[in-house]
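Researcher: Let's walk through a ligand-bound prediction step by step. First, I give you the protein sequence. Second, the SMILES string for adenosine-5'-triphosphate. Third, you return the three-dimensional complex as structure tokens. Ready?
Model: Ready.
Researcher: Here are steps one and two:
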Amino acid sequence: MRLTSGARLLHEHLRPHRRSLGLLLAWSAIEALPTFASGILVARAIDSGFLAGRPGEGFGWLATLAALWVVSAFGTRQVYPRLADTVEPMRDTLLRAVVAASLHRVVREDRLAGGSSVAQITEQVDAVRMLLSTMLRNMRQIVAAGVAALGGLVVLSPFIAAVTAVCVTVAVAFFALLLRVLLTRYRNVVLHGEQVGERAVPVVDGIRDVVTQTAESRAAADVGEAVERQAASLRAFARARVFRLPVVTLGVHVPLIALLALSPWLLSTQSLSTGALAGGVVYLAGPLQSAMLFLVNAGSTMLVSIGVVLDRLAEVCSNDRPSDVEHGAVADTDGYDIRLNEVTFGYSHHSHPVLDRLDLDLPADSHLAVVGPSGIGKSTLANVLARLVEPAAGTAFFGGTNLDRLGADDLRRELALIPQDAYVFAGTVWENLTYLAPDATRSEVDLSVDATGARTTVDRLGGYAATIPPGGDGLSPGERQLIALARVHVSRARVVVLDEATCHLDPGAEARAERAFSRRPGTLVVIAHRISSAQRADRILVLSGTGADVGGHDELLSRNRLYADLVGHWQAVP
Ligand SMILES: Nc1ncnc2c1ncn2[C@@H]1O[C@H](COP(=O)(O)OP(=O)(O)OP(=O)(O)O)[C@@H](O)[C@H]1O
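Model: Step three, the predicted complex:
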């Protein structure tokens, strides 16, 4: 059952690469040609060549076998690029899916330690990639060697082939049963390993507190208990692995001993020629034995690891259905006006809520500035609008639809948030600019770049085809903001939230960028960094901690003490 969800995940991510997988299998079959022919050609060399007094013919058959190995080497050469074509793109799509899923989970559960859990997940995806490529590479040993050996035996002696097939089937069935036990036990090893990490990390992080509080023995006992549990599960896993030996005995040694024991009778009744007997031994002691050994050794380690890790990744991905699924079908929006109805949000259940029963009406195409003292909750409001956090109470509506019934992708298309730390990624300037609108035309991008004032930055970088290095190295914070502003400007988002997204620009550049957004069709919410931003807006929302007040600049100046103070403070700053 657990393997099934992992296997389904693997199937889902391998399906788009079935062409390269097909080519991989085809080349593997060519690679297996000499394995299939080895016993048959050895039998021919003995029977029609050496035993018949024609050594030339005997060597001829052996030379044919050598030629097949050359063909096989060519096949091997083709296998590796196909392997990379299959596994590398699969890794990328799998990684994208599980990282997106774990980030959604981190945001949903409001856990700050998201980075470490995502890092763990990416490690697991890389483990899948490595294990899968090793599995696929070595699978040909099982498939090619096992199938080729059985096929060769059928040609040599249907009787020996039948006996061998029965033994192999029983051995494989026994191994399948063993695999279930191994999977359960290995899963325990992984889970207990994670518990060791969970217990050890806080102790290591807080080692100074542990020492100053003389709590070393308690911490050691706590971590030691988890270590002991993991050691016990490792021992249980190792005990189960011992049973792989009978599998090899049953699948290979029993038919080999049977063939040798029956050989006097088979030879005397002429059921088997001397060459066929030698060919049979070649198949059983060579490819079949290595296939069986690989199955039980790699199968009981790699197959088990891949099964358990894929299962864990499948669990992560299956959690990637936040409220859309919980609340049934994803709803459509009607327009893009936003309404908050008594929205309450706090970062913990115990602390005072940052947003307390906030009401807000944001008609389509309006321009709102949000102001308030530092730490009052302006960015938190932006996060509620972008559904990066879920309100604890109250409802947020987008286009008349409850925000948590809107599909995450739909919301991302409709609403773009630019945070203070603008993000640029490794790639070309064009890719950075068109990330949210991949179908944007050159003239649309030109228009947005010029409107937001990003042209100088684009030119300095070397134009649209220039490459931005990882982490945006070499770009100033202001230049990153300009690229992010142009990226959102060219997008189809009908609501744009600028969360101090222009704080690294000078006042003139900030005014230009904000004007570009207010002329652009759609709603604009600006978390204001300067009084000038507030003055450009149609309406201003003042967050004060005890309530929220909405109005125009002059109106608020005369009636709202906090706003008047903020304006006074801003004007005092040179
Ligand atoms: N992830 C978080 N976990 C816990 N508390 C948080 C978190 N993010 C913000 N806070 C707290 O919530 C409150 C509101 O923060 P927020 O960033 O929304 O304020 P802000 O008005 O945007 O501040 P600033 O103008 O300084 O950016 C602050 O007290 C802040 O410390």
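Researcher: And what stands out?
Model: The two ends are 67 Å apart (CA to CA). The first strand starts at residue 338 and ends at 345.
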